[in-house]
Automatic annotation (TrEMBL):
Positions of the UniProt region annotated as Disordered: 404-425
Signal peptide: none
Domain Dehydrogenase E1 component span(s) in chain numbering: 155-376
Name of the protein in question: Dehydrogenase E1 component domain-containing protein
Amino acid sequence: MAILLAKSRTIIRNILKITNVGSFEHVMKQRFTENNSWFHANYIIASYKTLAGDSISGKPRGLLASSAAVLIFRRAESARAGEMVEAVAYIDEDDDANQGMDFPGGRVTFTPQMECISESSEKRVPCYRVLDDNGYTITGSIFEQVDEETAVKMYKSMVTLQIMDTIFYEAQRQGRLSFYMTSSGEEAINIATAAALTPDDIILPQYREPGILLWRGFTIQQFANNLFGTKDSNEKGRQMPVHYGSNKLNYFTVSSPIATQLPQAAGVAYSLKMDNKDACVVAFMGDGCTSEGDFHAGLNFAAVTEAPVLFVCRNNGWAISTPTSEQFRSDGVVVKGQAYGIRSMRVDGNDTLAVYSAIRAAREMVIREQKPMLVEGHYISSRSPLDVGRFDQIPIVKRDRALENSSKPDKQIPKMGSEKRVVDRRGRNRASFKYKETVLSAIQVADKMKKPRLEDLFTDVYDRVPLNLREQEKSLRETVKKHNQDFPADVPL
């Protein structure tokens, strides 16, 4: 914060008049505190005698009547959770050309020239990439090595996620599910991010991150239980389908309103900072979230509190039916982080190895420096829209060159290294068949499972159900009894 005050003599007279003290040094060295704020000022300035003569009525020396005094509040470079930030202010006695102001981002000098900032930089932010379109490592790429066991798990998880999406989406189209949202094209950014994190890292998802849960051990049956609203689901039918959540797996429940998770993530991350946890918060969003006020509030909150939160934006160029050209004019989402003083990175969201490496590096910086970071992952490329993001088009591993021109997923063989295959065609077909059977079986089990009890509408919040909720439950039971034909018959009373 910077305060540009009027002429030097006016400053001195007004401050002395207001405070009724006889020493400018006393005035400027006293500590000011604003209630409910972080602003502390400890002015480091020469004494009043140096600036204004030997007495209050003496003629000023050192500062000319035409000069201006600038008081600067300079924020400390870093702060621990719960600590007050000490701001330092000073007066610049140099000539006009050397005067300046300190902002949190650095020192700003004055200029007699009127200038404005360009609407965008001539140089666009590059997109980090490790694998080419054929799935081979680009020469000179810098990335995290992935062992074979992790690579196989990543690949199989992406296959499972796509098969799960395909079958559940068809079930929704058939009317067996009331609602479903797929993650097609986002398998890499789901699974690679999950692989780069630790189980202690807390996830605040949007609604296309089931891959994180899948990686952490959430079963396909648990997904199906949520979608069908069964008695065994974590939500017990009290949430919309696809609104998964797991306290055990550090995965916050999905929220329908767009971008509400972002300021929440900053708050959760600050709590980790207060507890000195060796973990971070990861908040997911789509490009549409950046059009919401919560996006800006969340990033600014995280930046100011220096919260260890990693914002991951899945930018596919569309917010449902609204293209990014109708959302913003900036160089994508990555530059928005810089505006809030947040380090940012852009990565190819179709490149599993690049996403894995980027998230690993970002997580390390967020925890080590206890500051937020923004990662923008693109997953639109020159490929056919039908192929974008398919698990066979976003390999962790290399594909057989003999099949590189094939656009059919079942004809592509992922490889690891130049010759070593992770999953051959036969193994992949067996795995695909197995996952399909697992998903279909989970649907059958969930479809036949009992629904949650009526009383579950009023439980799992209070240790002891308060009187007003007991009265509501009684009223609901009377309504169901009176209008039995209007309520589902499979809901236990």
